[in-house]
Amino acid sequence: MGFPAGPECPPGETDRIKIWFRCAPHDGWPPAGDRPPPDGRPPLSDDQPPRDGSPPQGGSLPRGDGWPPHGDGWPPCDTEGLWATRLGPDTARVDNVPFLRDGVAEGEIVRFRTDEDGVRWASGRVAESGNCTVRVLPLPGGPLGPDVRAVHQRLAGFGLRGEVFGPDVPLVALTVPGGADLRAVKALLARGRDAGWWHYEVACATRAWRSA
What we know:
Layout: E1 16-22, E2 79-86, E3 91-94, E4 109-114, E5 120-127, E6 132-138, H1 148-155, E7 161-166, E8 169-176, H2 182-194, E9 198-204, H3 207-211
Antiparallel strand pairs: 1-2, 2-3, 3-4, 4-5, 6-8, 6-9, 7-8
């Protein structure tokens, strides 16, 4: 069993809502000049309309051995909608892992505002989750090929939860729980990078992650 695709809202769960996040400005991918600050968690902003979050069209995998360059249809949007569980009139807990937004992890509690069209926008963080967000892209020309199942097999022992961006883009977004063996996870990610299995980025780090 591998990672699932991005989740849909279960029918009948009225406490499940979608909250929109503005992604970091993109100047290449990953954005070289817009990494998270030392605590790994930039402020949340809410000033962009939602965009279509579907994968790039054309059925092709990312080109080259790195992240897809800006201008090749990646990233496909500058906002991202995440499912969340409503906890109060303007607060919710993030329920899935972000593919595009940096500085956010599954399980965090965020505050949101609702605009005149009924769209909910993240406006601040209420509580951290202790989780990290890591993204892994298996290299099409590497030993694993574009096989997300092979990524899963190598990381399954650490109890990581993950989702796959889509059938044509084998980008895996992972939630690394705070209680995982962070030192071992970091070592495996680095080993896979050095062996040509994948590229990866840490999109949301905790102090525990940095000190592991």
